[in-house]
């Protein structure tokens, strides 16, 4: 039987074709794993925008905004929102419950009826309040009510920096309250029979003698992404984002997410599992005086760091 062969003059064409396919694949891969600015010149602008929170339908976003300079002292922020209609995001507007005081880090719950946020607004005659956790409820007419401060011990006399929820209603927060491991720690407040307990420190697998701050948890509560400062692995002296996985109630040692961290501040993660997207905020470099909101595909990050989990030996 005669063997079929490939004419010699076709080898350059085939080789070129294979190179083009390989180049295209690499190009798509690099684009896929590169963080992109979210809604440039609309939501992400020359001002400071950070801490995004999306509704479960993906049609609303709430975020913090300030016209001050990032890294140049105290920042007064307000909470803004935008609505997605016909695949376009509206021009952001000031949330009706914000604007007078320093409000930041909004978190919209899965049912869309409650929004938690951090504020230094006065309460009970206290006008020099620390950063506390507040919540506001949305009524049947889709109108936001009057913000309410969460009671102690969920709040403390010190600062709270962020709050998130899982699908079971448990609260996760960052705080520099007393008796932590370091400058700031991560805590959980478990919900049982519609009642919240006291904050419990998430332990020294996650927390260190340095600072652990703004965080995100997935729906199941077994993935946590958070900002950490001054760790040896950091690209930035201010804040890098880390990821950890929970197995049998133990958290793995946090891993620096190299794909997104910069020499600036990288913080306030927001994971949209249904869309496989991780949003976060970044100033990009030490000299930058603004932050923007970015997004990146999450699957690659999950696959890479899930393979490399390490747990503390008991």
Order of helices and strands: HEEEEEEEEEEEEEEEEEEEEEEEEH
Put simply, the count of helices is: 2
Shape: globular
Round the Cα radius of gyration to an integer and report it: 22 Å
The percent of residues in helical segments reads under 10%
Distance between the termini: 68 Å
Query: What is the mean predicted local confidence, pLDDT?
Result: 91
Provide a short characterization of the protein structure.
By secondary structure, this protein is mainly β.
Would you kindly provide a written description of the structure presented here, covering whatever features stand out?
By secondary structure, the chain is mainly beta. Helices cover 10% and strands 37% of the residues. The chain has two helices and 24 strands. It has helices at 11-32, 299-306, and strands at residues 36-37, 48-54, 60-66, 78-85, 88-89, 93-94, 103-108, 114-119, 132-137, 148-149, 160-165, 171-175, 185-189, 191-192, 195-196, 200-201, 211-217, 223-229, 240-247, 250-251, 255-256, 266-272, 277-282, 292-297. Strands 2, 3, 4, 5 and 6 form a five-stranded antiparallel β-sheet that branches. Strands 17, 18, 19, 20 and 21 form a five-stranded antiparallel β-sheet that branches.
Main traits of this protein?
314 residues; mainly beta; 2 helices; globular
Topology:
Layout: H1 11-32, E1 36-37, E2 48-54, E3 60-66, E4 78-85, E5 88-89, E6 93-94, E7 103-108, E8 114-119, E9 132-137, E10 148-149, E11 160-165, E12 171-175, E13 185-189, E14 191-192, E15 195-196, E16 200-201, E17 211-217, E18 223-229, E19 240-247, E20 250-251, E21 255-256, E22 266-272, E23 277-282, E24 292-297, H2 299-306
Antiparallel strand pairs: 1-24, 2-3, 3-4, 4-5, 4-6, 7-8, 8-9, 9-10, 11-12, 12-13, 13-16, 14-15, 17-18, 18-19, 19-20, 19-21, 22-23, 23-24
């Amino acid at each position: 039987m005669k063997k079929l062969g490939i004419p010699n003059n076709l080898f350059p064409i085939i080789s070129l074709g294979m190179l083009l396919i390989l180049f295209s694949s690499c190009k798509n891969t690099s684009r896929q794993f590169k963080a992109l600015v979210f809604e440039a010149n609309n939501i992400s602008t020359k001002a400071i925008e950070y801490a995004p929170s999306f509704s479960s339908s993906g049609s609303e976003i709430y975020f913090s905004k300030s016209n001050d300079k990032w890294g140049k002292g105290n920042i007064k922020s307000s909470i803004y929102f935008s609505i997605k209609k016909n695949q376009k995001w509206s021009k952001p507007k000031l949330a009706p419950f914000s604007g007078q005081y320093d409000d930041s880090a909004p978190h919209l719950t899965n049912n869309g009826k409650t929004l938690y946020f951090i504020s230094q607004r006065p309460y009970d005659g206290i006008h020099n309040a620390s950063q506390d956790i507040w919540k506001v409820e949305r009524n049947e007419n889709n109108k936001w009510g009057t913000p309410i401060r969460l009671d102690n011990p969920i709040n403390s006399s010190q600062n709270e920096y962020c709050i998130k929820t899982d699908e079971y209603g448990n609260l996760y927060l960052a705080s520099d309250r007393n008796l932590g491991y370091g400058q700031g720690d991560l805590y959980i407040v478990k919900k049982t029979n519609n009642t919240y307990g006291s904050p419990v420190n998430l332990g020294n697998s996650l927390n260190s003698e340095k600072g652990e701050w703004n965080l995100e948890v997935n729906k199941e509560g077994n993935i946590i992404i958070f900002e950490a400062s001054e760790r040896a692995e950091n690209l930035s002296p201010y804040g890098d984002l880390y990821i950890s996985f929970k197995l049998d109630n133990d958290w793995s040692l946090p891993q620096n997410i190299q794909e997104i961290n910069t020499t600036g501040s990288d913080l306030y993660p927001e994971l949209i599992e249904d869309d496989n997207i991780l949003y976060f905020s970044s100033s990009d470099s030490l000299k930058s005086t603004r932050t923007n909101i970015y997004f990146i595909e999450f699957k690659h990050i999950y696959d890479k760091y899930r393979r490399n989990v390490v747990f503390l030996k008991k």
